[in-house]
Design brief:
single chain, mainly alpha, 5 helices
Length: 116
């Protein structure tokens, strides 16, 4: 957890002890989750673009692939996305960029399964 999220959690606990209503506490909690999501969204979008370019798929399928790999490897999605972006950014030329292994395609849903 980031320092900002921990600070927000401490503030929420303090407010609960002060006697704030549950509705007010839940609103603060939802706000903290939204801020955390917004801080990780850019790197996830970048990784999604990389996967789209490498795999020749659309945005939904790229996100689904990232999500499934994240679950399969037990790595948070934003951490996986950071690793993908860092790997591409650290390469000195396009020939040094490793694409997502073909074995990752097994994490893709088939077109018929998506419609169900």
């Amino acid at each position: 957890m980031s320092a900002e999220v921990r600070a927000r959690a401490r503030a929420t606990r303090h407010q609960v002890r002060r006697g704030r209503t549950q509705r007010e506490v839940l609103a603060d909690s939802a706000f903290a989750r939204l801020r955390a999501k917004m801080s990780t969204m850019p790197v996830i979008e970048q990784a999604k673009g990389i996967v789209m370019a490498q795999q020749g798929c659309g945005p939904e399928e790229a996100f689904e692939l990232l999500r499934r790999v994240s679950q399969h490897t037990n790595v948070k999605l934003h951490v996986l996305a950071e690793r993908v972006v860092k790997q591409v950014a650290s390469s000195t030329s396009a020939s040094n960029v490793r694409s997502i292994p073909r074995s990752a395609k097994r994490h893709r849903r088939s077109r018929t399964r998506q419609r169900l």
